[in-house]
Amino acid sequence: MKTRAIRLYGANDLRLEEFELPPIASDEILAKVVTNSICMSDHKAAEQGASHKRVPNDIDKNPIMLGHEFCGEIVEVGEQWKSKFKVGSRFSIQPALNYQGTLDAPGYSFRYIGGDATYVVIPHQVMDLDCLLPYEGDAFFLGSLAEPVSCVVGTFHAMYHTTNGSYVHDMGIVEGGNLAILAGVGPMGLSAIDYALHNTGRKPGRLVVTDIDDARLARAQSLYSLEDAKANGVELIYLNTKGLADPVKTMMELTDNHGYDDVLVMAPVRALVEQADAILAKDGCLNFFAGPNKTDFSATMNFYNVHYGSTHIVGTSGGNTDDMRESLALMEKGLINPAAMVTHIGGLSAVPEAVINLPSIPGGKKMMYTHLDFPLTALDDLAELGKDNPVFAELAVLVEKHNGLWNAEAEKYLMEHCTKRVKE
Ligand SMILES: NC(=O)c1ccc[n+]([C@@H]2O[C@H](COP(=O)([O-])OP(=O)(O)OC[C@H]3O[C@@H](n4cnc5c(N)ncnc54)[C@H](O)[C@@H]3O)[C@@H](O)[C@H]2O)c1
Fold it and tell me: Which residues contact 260 (CB under 8 A, 6 or more apart)?
């Protein structure tokens, strides 16, 4: 089976290539990818090339296939898995495999599996670890988004708190407590807000979301309004910290100087980590969610507070399979809607440029349709582009109909009517 895929050969050396996939072994599965969303972590993997933790050293000779947020359909099932998986079923993948203690993951470490491709061979490790998940939803793009949402779900579950005199870690955020999401209106921050407000477990009493980007803050507020938060029992506050003389003081005042029980840091910025440390309440838990691209990334932490205030840190990278199942269930019940993360759509050949330039492209998630071929297109530009392109004109109508969000109806229309297709 031929595939067309984006392969990483070295730092920022991404190539769209067509090549033959090996025939599947009895413990492997051949699959068609339909959507893959681009993650800031793809940008970091591309930027670092072989020096990235998850990327093998010999990619110059054995390039890996990029992309780990993907959804598609099963095409051929190896003998060993025939009782469990069926041809034609839709799937989503939990890529943080943790296979025998390695960091190997689809989209970073393998030659024949990565989401920016038309077809992939799913290696046995994915099935062995139960990381190939059936996806029953009607929109492929939501299946792709289950992966980034699972990272957020995992983050909330990894937070922990303690009780004086006990050595037991109580997992999860403080119910009814103060939660701060710093740098919180990028796509991952939006997902964290959605989960904090709408999950069926613990919710904060107060949620303070900071950022330095006014446009992103305004969009976040239009998606997750103060009223909606209130209806879910949460006092929600958006705060632009840019230009504040003393952001820590302002954030502390918002909690009557109690501080924050839980703090998520969504950008790898030293000053932000130090800000997070400074606003922790007694027994406060800081999650350094953002992945740094420098191996010597460090920040100062107040160890007086570690000792006397029981403040502590966790860091999560990816979610686990239960987190992925929880994401899928919350989506299927309509409790969370990760569609808000998507601001752009595109075809396969638009991937390399989008990945390399990701930090400078405004907006949120870029959802790539790997069998289609059209430039990266902002949802906001569809109406204008639609003046010369009837497909975009109809997509603009469908996006408008769904409150400005990418949606299953628009996806179906795009897949049926986009005439520029990747050669099969
Ligand atoms: N832990 C995981 O499992 C996991 C999974 C996916 C992504 N990530 C990482 O999470 C981070 C967030 O992802 P994203 O796609 O939302 O990234 P993003 O870069 O789009 O968003 C980060 C936000 O940080 C804001 N920001 C930057 N510097 C700031 C500062 N000094 N003060 C306040 N705000 C500031 C930006 O305005 C932006 O809105 C990235 O580092 C990404 O690599 C982690």
Answer: 177, 178, 179, 180, 208, 251, 279, 280, 281, 284
